[in-house]
Amino acid sequence: MSNSKNASKPKAGEPVSRRDFLATTGTGLAALATVGCAPAQQDCIDVAAAAATGAASKIAPTAPFDTFRDWIAALDAHGLLMRFDRVDQDAYHTTGLFFRATDKFGFYETPAMMFENVKIDGEWVKGPVIANHQGHWATDALLWGLEPVPGDNYATYRRAKAHLSAMLERNGGEYPQIAPVEISRDRALCKEVVITGDDIDIRRFAFLKTNPSDVGRYVNTGSVFMEDAEMGPNFGTYRCQIKGPRKLMVNSSTIHQGYKMMMAAKARGEQTMPVSIVVGQDPVTWFLSSSPVVRRQEGVVVDELAIAGGMRGKALETVKSETSDIRIPAHVEMVIEGEIQLQAERELEGPFGEMFGYLGPPNEQTFWMNITTITHRKDPWMMNSYTGMQRGMVTAPMDSMYEILLRRIVPGFVDYHFPHDVMGFVSLSIDKTRPGQGLEAGRAVVQRNRIAKVIVVVDKDINVLDRTAVVFAMGSRWQPSPATEIFPDAKGVMTDPSQLVEGETSKIVIDATRQWPEEGGRDNFPETNRALLQRGAPDVFEEVNALYSQALIDYRRV
Question: What is the pLDDT of residues 1-29, one digit of tens each?
Fold first, then answer.
């Protein structure tokens, strides 16, 4: 039975018209204020201004964030949230709107979006639905209680990496742990509403069909919690197609811990496996669920909730699921509990728009689950991932951990970047001291990053976070022969649409460092104009910042 009160009742009002929407996309996001959203000027410049005045930190919740709503409130206070009332997803307006936002602001400077009510299958469904909540550069800093650097997204990101690198150094190269604490169910926000039996219908909630070519609606931001007697607890983010009111597909690939757990239980002859899928997680739980930060070793049990606590600097509060002993974060927006049918015939799932920005193939052998219980906060907030269109999670924690490894194995290592808007591309910089060093550095990435397909190595004066600077180095310092190495047989990932054989790919290392004479380069390589400026006028940037930084902050891009 259910004690839900109007969980999906829409607000009164009229939907955004097609005319308004087309006018918005035709003239830029400045027109969005006319259709019920916050002012379009809320971009990275506003974040810098808020940080410079300190105004945002006085009114916003601060780290560690115990709930998804606290995190969104912090983004809102820092000018990183746009609000929309009624958006027609039957016409795919949330998706089109998000694409237009990234067209205007860029992949790493697009704010989060809140859609209060969404039209799904002809009905207005109460949200809100949140998008892109960890997409902006500034979120990497705000998540740890750090203020963004005014007017400098790159410095903001490096501030976050420095914080996380110091955390790793203090803990021997691993992220610290603080064991979670279990609280009573009456204190757990996720238990405010309990739905069981015939009252269960996952379709009543604002889960979206993101793209017309997706096979259907998805729970695509759920952290799937499982436990195994030998492997211990685990949670990961897997795409979950909605197949009916009480049926979800659970598409975990062969490299995921969740898949290994399901196969192990199946091999033991178990008929079912309990699972709890949480939606609307606190920001640290979310990125841990969605990124390979946790290092697993054979036979070693890892409690990812303890790592979440350690990174937050505060224990995560947990509660037991309604139908199993699986511990889950206590204050998530929703928990979908059920049983994976291990021995039943697996079914077709997909296609679905994937992280490379292309339609991912269907999976003919996907496990599925029966939903037995849904618990949620009153009027739960949903999260949707515009997969392949947004940065799914903060990346400074992953980059910081990976850099520890690269510093050990790459002589002269300086910096590393694995951007999510051009999946498969990696850039790293080195302090080059001998010939051949660039290609050697690239080989280290080839061997350790399955997704990386194009690895560009640059000199230390090139900012790897700046895509234009990296391409500048390729155009002016790289000679395709001999400063290139191709690896015809390397490990890849199944979501790469260019692969002919699943999990196999070729890779290329581009040495865009200045080529030494021993490498076939010039005897004397000229310096850049910027370097010459800094040598001839060493105080120029400090002086310009002092005189003109506010003018740059005040400018609104057109």
Answer: 444 433 433 333 333 332 232 233 332 33
Phi-psi region of 313 (alpha: psi -120 to 50; beta: other; left: phi over 0): left
Per-residue model confidence (pLDDT) at position 12 = 32
H helices present in 84-213, as ranges: 93-105, 139-142, 153-170
Using the CB atoms, write b or e for 465-488: b if 16+ within 10 Å: bebebbebbbeebbeeeebebebe
Identify the CA nearest to 217 among candidates 245, 252, 198: 245
Output the pLDDT for position 6: 38
Residues in contact with 447: Cβ distance below 8 Å, sequence separation at least 6, in sequence order: none
pTM for the model: 0.85
Separation of alpha carbons 235 and 308, rounded Å: 12
Q: What's the pLDDT score for residue 557?
A: 62
What superfamily would CATH give domain 181-383?
A: Electron Transport, Fmn-binding Protein; Chain A (2.30.110.10)
The pLDDT score that the predictor gives to residue 205 is: 98
- Whether the per-residue pLDDT at 207 is higher than 60: the answer is yes
- The CATH fold assigned to 410-526 is UbiD C-terminal domain-like (3.40.1670)
Tokens coding 498: 């260019």
* Token pair of 326 as six digits: 């699986």
- The three-class DSSP label of residue 169 is helix
Q: Count the residues in the chain.
A: 558
70's tokens? 């606290």
Domain boundaries, the chain: 18-157, 181-383, 410-526, 531-558
Closest CA to 396 of 89, 140, 126, 43: 140
Return the pLDDT at 56. 52
Cα dihedral value 72, 63, 406, 502, nearest 10: -30
| CB 6 within 8 Å of CB 124 | no
The share of the chain scoring above pLDDT 90, in percent, equals 73
Tokens coding 296: 């697993």
